[in-house]
Amino acid sequence: MKELQHLNKYFLKYKKQLxxxxxxxxxxxxxxxxTPRYVREIFVVIExxxxxxxxxxxxxxxxxxxxxxxxxxxxxxxxFTFFMRQYIINVSRYVEFDLKNEIYIQYQKLxxxxxxxxxxxxxxxxxxxxxxxxxxxxGPAIMYSINxxxxxxxxxxxxxxxxxxxxxxxxxxxxxxxIVIYKLSKEIHHRSTIVQQFLxxxxxxxQESFSGISVIKxxxxxxxxxxxxxxxxxxxxxxxxxxAKVQAWFFPMMILLIxxxxxxxxxxxxxxxxNGEIESLGTIAEFIIYVNMxxxxxxxxxxxxxxxxxxxxxxxxxxxxxxLEPEITNTVEAHTKITGDIVFNNVTFTYDDTNIQALNxxxxxxxxxxxxxxxxxxGSGKSTILDLIGRLYDIDGGSILINDIPIKDHNxxxxxxxxxxxPQDAFLFSDTIKNNIKFGNQEATDDxxxxxxxxxxxxxxxxxxxxxxxxxxxxxxxxxxxxQKQRVSIARAIIKAxxxxxxxxxxxAVDTETEEKILKNLTKITxxxxxxxxxxxxxxxxxxxxxxxxxxxxxxxxxxHETLINVKGYYQHLYLKQLSEASSNxx
Length: 587
Ligand SMILES: Nc1ncnc2c1ncn2[C@@H]1O[C@H](COP(=O)(O)OP(=O)(O)OP(=O)(O)O)[C@@H](O)[C@H]1O
Prior knowledge:
- InterPro entries: AAA+_ATPase, ABC1_TM_dom, ABC1_TM_sf, ABC_transporter-like_ATP-bd, ABC_transporter-like_CS, P-loop_NTPase, Type_1_exporter.
- This protein is an alpha/beta fold.
- The chain has helices at 8-13, 15-32, 34-50, 56-109, 112-117, 120-162, 164-171, 173-211, 213-219, 222-247, 250-274, 281-322, 382-389, 412-417, 433-438, 446-455, 459-464, 482-495, 512-525, 538-541, 561-564, 570-586, and strands at residues 342-351, 356-366, 371-376, 397-402, 405-406, 419-422, 500-504, 530-534, 546-551, 554-559.
- The longest helix has 54 residues, at 56-109.
- It binds adenosine-5'-triphosphate.
């Protein structure tokens, strides 16, 4: 139960609802327990009448009265049971909501390294399946426990007062029932976890084959994928059948044990009646009702125990993530000013998961309003420079200064707010184009969205869609071409109007003519702002104030377009190659 203590803060938060729910549960059970006593009354009245003790009129009146009491008690119990669920189950939904939000907020805080170390499926499971297990503890387990305890205490008091020996025989099989149900619930849970794992394997496989359907069709491998699907589905079916087998034991076991208790009541009660140890047959009827009333709550003891165990295991997994401290944290509360002066001083950085040294003694500086172009072979460390400016990772050596202040001493929120980042793989959400652009600035007007799209040279494409800017992207909507995606992503960064703009190879999928237009617009927009353009084309770099060429994490060339084309090296080679490509294209 140690791990589940994490939920105590939520129970404290919803203590009022829980308290009301508990009181209501107790009241509901008290009224429910009136019925067996009234049934006994009926027997007593009839027995009296049969022995000639009372007239027909009196017996009718007494019976009517008792029946009215039974109906009234059942009605009141039903109404309170309704409210019992309303209060206690609702609390479990509130706790589920709070816990999901707590986990989600923690996920957002954790650094990129966390996402690399943990699989998406695992992250999803903790927020859905594990929280679901915990909810079962916060709601049903608590409700059934209060229910069982109340019912048991009151019923046992009644039963032992009435006929102690009979009471003892009646409750004798109940612990056995509880243990059997506990064992069964554990096995059911074990097998359903396996079924769940298989289902998610199956859905991952299906999802992947739908996403890659064009590749599957192009390679004509439909029969192979169908065969793999069939194998997976067959395995899943086997696990489902194994689960169904153990589930099938649940109710027969309950019926068997209830039956045993009923038989014991009838046999022991009957013998006691014959021996004159109990006065009325009504006591036997009353006890049979008790047995049936107690069976389910007793069965739930086993069930609740397994729920609590599952919840404990799930909460342990959740706590593991909640306890993680983000590697990158904001240590500065006060706002810090960022205008765009960036200095890299002998910066070294190694990705700790791959141990790849991405940057090795990199130094450069850019002033506010300047443009830096970063070129180099693939894997030379270009994107890493941009990630470090956004402080997605902390450096191992050297220093990064932004406006003469070490990057770590900047308010992290201010730093990220001052950056507009266009990643290498443009990621767009399944939402409208307009909202995807407004992601950069939620307050932007429609005119500003259009302006940004025009500057990114994507406006003309967007208005050709039937729904224009309201066109939904992604699974439910249309798919944009690689170049269109890149340009929407550029519009998103532009609309933010940040002090620093980082473009990570984001013009790779646009033709040189469009690239030219975008770069021209960017020159206009980025006036007074600092921009870093990472790319593989000389065309993206030639107007930059400064160009650096990276190789294997080191700067191997530095200068302007004019200086670099005149020195032997990567830049000149690239320039000549692209020049000859351009002229052969013209031919
Ligand atoms: N998230 C990461 N985790 C581990 N290693 C990484 C990560 N990102 C990059 N690397 C490694 O660091 C090195 C530099 O990568 P980086 O992405 O900065 O290169 P790049 O110059 O931007 O390459 P490209 O032009 O192909 O985009 C590469 O060897 C790469 O494998």
